[in-house]
Structures are given as C-alpha cells and as structure tokens.
Specification:
alpha/beta; Rossmann fold; Alpha-Beta Plaits; 6-stranded parallel beta sheet; 16 helices
C-alpha cells in the first residue's frame, strides 16, 4: 500500500520504520530537512520537505495515489487540516494525532465523524490508560488486552530468585496443566526471540506471556508476583498533575487504589482536588522525599512518574524505589532514555509514541486483524486476528500448517472458551487468534490470515 505520513517526529518516524519494514511504500512529509535526511538515511522512505497542510506539498508527495494518510505533527490544527485536504483527494483512510480535548474529549464539538477522519488518536490518553493497566498487574512491565479483555499479554523481568529461572520451555510445558499460560518471546541482550523447547529462561531475561485473565491470580502466585491483601486498598503515588497524571489517578480510583497525586503548582493542586473523588492531592516537588515519606511512600504498591521531564521522572522513580515503593512506572519520551531507564532498576518505562503507534497500526493492516499492540524495543507486535469462513486453515492441525517463522500463536478463543494451542490444535471459522510476531514475520502473518 501507499502510505503518506505528515510529521517526522517520534511518532511519524516510528510508524515509518514499522510500515517500511513491512514492505509498504512510505512517503514522509516534514518542514525539517534534517528530520527527513535522518529518516531517509536509516529507513526505506521517500522524504518531501514542506508544509503537510499545503495542497501543493501533498500533490508533490503523491496524495492522489495514496491509500492511507496519517498526520502526526505536534500541531492539532495542522493534522486536522491535512486530513481534510486528504478527504478532498478521496484518500480512503485518514488518521490524525490530536492532543486537545476539543477534538478527542467526551462531547467534543468537532468529532472525528464531523471532520470525516477515521481515527483521532490522543497519545496522552492512550499512554495514561496503558500505565493504568500495568499498575494493576503486579510485577508486569508491559500489559495488553485482547478479545475484549479475556486474554492478557504481559511482560515480566526474570531475576535469579524467579521460579522460572533456569527452566527450559519444555520443562515449563510440564506445569502448563496447572498454570495455563505460554511464553511467546524472550528478550535477552536487546535481542528478542521466539523460544523453542530447549531454550532456557535466564536471570536478566524479559519474558512475554499469554494467559487468560481468569488464570492470572494463579500465575501471579506461581511467579511470586501475587497481589497484596485484597482487604487493604493498594496505595499509588502519581507525580505530575497534568492531563496524563490526572487520567491515571481517575483510572486507579475506579480500581479502588488509595491515590496520592503530587504536583508542584499550588493552583493546579486546587483544580486536581476538585477532580478527584477520594484521592489526596499533595503540593510538593518530585524530589521532596521527606514529604513522600510522610505520606507513606514506603508502603506504596506503585509509584508513577508522569511529568513532562524525563529526567525528573527517572530520578524521582529511583528515589521512590530506594525508600520502599514496591514498583516504579515511568513516563519516558526520549528513545535514548527509554532504553537506559530499565537498566537503572525502574520496573517499566512507557512511551506515548508506542501507545499512539499501537492505536494507529491496526488501521493500516490487511486481512482480518482486530487489534494490534506494539512491543517497545524490539519492533515486535502482537496481533489479534479472526479466522474467516473461506480460510484454507480450517480443521487442520497447527503442526501441518506452514506458519511463518518468527511468529507464534499464543491463544485461541472460541465461543467464550480459551485455549493455549499445541501442535494438535485446529482453527475453526470465527476463532479469535492472538499471535506474537517478530518484525520480519509481521507481513507474513498478515498474508497467512488474509
């Protein structure tokens, strides 16, 4: 497909990288010649210097032959105007990144339907919702839900004390009857692999598993990541009372957390106090550790740093962990910081660009793809697909199918039931299949199910 992306910032570059790897013909438009040179040097894309909201620039970029149009600059108005121009050129699929609640909030005056845009994605809301999900899963650094929440995809770090350390995948299979989950990938030394029977889980690995939501309590117990006592409300500290921090606080309130929201601006604290139902708002700096100790950070289930500063987020997270917080989740914008932070002892680093990209990617897919989640640091993806009635895979054992290398089926959901597949499992019409795929296998998986 021919895809035109306006905006060569973090989200635009990330999408260009993913889509060009899959063989799509990607054109990237940006005002910055430097940004475009960087993308053209590293990626298989065509760069056009100019204003993405200009008809002249868009025609130069081939808007008349474009199948999918994606506008992800830092300016909402530019993205929306660019999509309106794309509509006039009859581009089939139009996507815009927006940050203002005027476009993406409840009751927005200019909704996507009125604007004729297929998807309005707000990275701030997407990342806040992702952080909230991770906060609710003890020990996990990555969480994604599929099949309306029936199937969970989770990432865990393996320590020398972990029950899974030094076990092979074959040995893990022997306890599958008790704990229903499957290890779909292992990341080790910045490399991600789809493991086989003889592969061993080692200390320092990051593993990714599929599991049924109803089986998670038993799996958490087995991994020694069980939740705290249900009779006690879990305490959560959130640094940063901006839109992301406030949304996280509201999400965690709904999940019965004891929320402490911290902000350095006294006037903003007054606004936050009116927005929260039960949470306590604290006027303090993120590095004011004495105030955090007074408020009970040493018994916190989770500390979440969600300010606009990567450095503040990382430093305050380390301080919170040092003074007893059980987990630290950190909002990180810089790709360089995103790779560095986990090595410092932070449990999870979450990027708005990944959250936005995950929402956008499913709009550019072929076949019967229902949902997509991007995995930070590996270019891997998790795809949820539906098996059609004309598929040539029906009622054939998986062991007989020529399934793409570098990908693994982690779950099959059928008529409300959940199955971890093995070689004898079969696919039936209407099945929902959740697949983990390395970057070189993504396009092959799409074609396989198309």
């Amino acid at each position: 497909m021919r895809i035109l992306i306006v905006g060569a910032g973090q989200v635009g570059y990330f999408l260009s990288e993913r889509l060009s790897l899959e063989g799509h013909e990607v054109t990237l438009v940006d005002r910055s010649d430097e940004n475009l040179r960087r993308a053209e040097d590293r990626l298989n894309v065509l760069g056009i210097v100019g204003n993405g909201a200009s008809a002249e620039t868009l025609e130069q970029a081939g808007i008349k032959q474009t199948d999918i149009f994606i506008a992800v600059t830092d300016l909402d108005e530019v993205n929306i105007l660019a999509c309106l121009l794309a509509r006039e050129y009859q581009v089939k699929t139009r996507i815009a990144r927006v940050t203002s609640i005027e476009y993406s909030g409840q009751g927005a005056i200019l909704s996507k339907e009125k604007l004729g845009i297929d998807l309005l994605i707000n990275p701030n809301d997407a990342v806040a919702d992702e952080i909230s999900k991770i906060a609710c899963r003890t020990g996990a650094f990555d969480v994604a839900e599929f099949v309306e929440g029936q199937v969970q995809f989770l990432g865990y770090r393996i320590t020398a004390e972990s029950p899974l350390c030094d076990l092979t995948l074959r040995e893990l299979g022997e306890i599958r009857g008790i704990y229903r989950f499957v290890v779909t990938a292992i990341t080790r030394d910045d490399k991600t692999l789809v493991p086989r029977g003889d592969d061993k889980i080692q200390a320092g690995d990051r593993i990714f598993i599929f599991a049924s939501t109803k089986d998670l309590p038993a799996i958490q117990y087995m991994l020694k990541q069980e939740e705290g006592e249900t009779s006690k409300r879990r305490r959560a500290f959130i640094l940063g009372g901006g839109r992301i921090g406030l949304r996280i606080a509201k999400n965690l309130e709904e999940r019965h957390f004891d929320v402490r929201l911290i902000d350095r601006d006294e006037e903003r604290c007054d606004v936050l106090s009116a927005e929260l139902k039960r949470g306590i708002v604290i006027h303090a700096e993120g590095n004011d550790i004495s105030t955090l100790i007074d408020e009970g950070v040493e018994v916190a289930e989770v500390y979440i740093a969600a300010t606009d500063s990567d450095e503040t987020n990382i430093l305050s997270s380390l301080l919170a962990r040092q003074h007893g917080a059980k987990r630290a989740l950190t909002l990180v914008n810089s790709p360089e910081m995103l790779g560095l932070a986990p090595t410092l002892g932070i449990d999870a680093c979450i990027s708005p660009r990944i959250a936005a990209a995950s929402a956008i990617l499913k709009y550019v897919r072929r076949g019967d793809i229902v949902s997509v989640a991007a995995i930070e640091g590996s270019n891997a993806e998790v795809l949820e697909l539906q098996v059609g009635r004309d598929s040539n895979m029906l009622d054939r054992p998986l062991s007989e199918l020529d399934f793409p290398a570098g990908a693994i089926i982690g779950a099959i959901v059928r008529a409300g039931g959940y199955q971890i597949p093995d070689g004898s499992s079969t696919l039936q019409q209407g099945d929902r299949v959740v697949v983990f795929a390395l970057p070189e296998a993504v396009a092959k998986v799409e074609s396989f199910f198309a």
